[in-house]
Amino acid sequence: MQHFTEKEEWMARQQEKKRRPGFTAAELEEIWNRWERGESSVEIAGALGRGWNVYYVVARSGGIRPRPRRRSAQALTAKEREEISRGIAAGRSLRAIAGELKRSASTLSREIRRNGGRRRYRAEAADQRAWERARRPKSCRLARRPRLREIVEEKLRDYWAPQQISSWLKRTYPENEFYRVSHETIYRSLFIQARGLFKKELTKSLRSQRSIRRSRQSSRKGRGSG
């Protein structure tokens, strides 16, 4: 019988992942719709006709549907980048291009400099880089406010539910926005371990003691409502 080292087994798993076809946007939407209705990952995989489990899709975001990505209202648009590229090709000055776009010349200067300068600037490539940079994780409210995080941790150790903590903070500090945090933010900080915000064992303080979040419908599945 052939034996494999841990490294060889890990490499084999990575190769297997590469061979698996990815999910389309429509399939991901259906996965999350079914997950929030209380279906298990095995049931979802069967419904989609896929031969492998979809658990890792929901587990990597803690069982919480990822927020749809949106461009910042202040960010340059793809159309504006096309205008910048045309302006450069026509030999126009940055001030002239900025005036037409109603942007500051310094904004355009930074945009061109970080994307290869006037000679190498390409609108499509610049827009793609900006979209990729926007994927970098942003710090959440609890990460920026240590004192608020300490309070939430204390309540979690006392087995308070995130909804209870959020409501208690509103009642205790009605005039202070610093101490406001939604229960969804607490759940995201607990279940999306990549943030590294809370210690992993704090999930055991939740009443369900799950490592990922499930919908309320999943706990009532198969039970009567009377």
Q: What does it look like?
A:
The protein is an all-alpha fold. It has three domains: 50 residues, no CATH class; 56 residues; 70 residues, no CATH class. The chain has 14 helices and no strands. The C terminus is likely disordered.
The oligomeric status of these chains comes to single chain
The best one-word shape is flat
Structurally, the number of domains stands at: 3
What portion of residues belong to β-strands? under 5%
- The count of strands amounts to 0
Series of secondary-structure elements, N-terminal to C-terminal: HHHHHHHHHHHHHH
How many strands, what sense, and barrel or not for the largest sheet?
Answer: none
Helix coverage percent of residues? Answer: 40-55%
What's this entry about, in short?
The protein is an all-alpha fold. It is built from 14 helices and no strands.
Which terms would index this structure?
single chain, 226 residues, mainly alpha, 3 domains, 14 helices, 55% helix, 0% strand, disordered C terminus
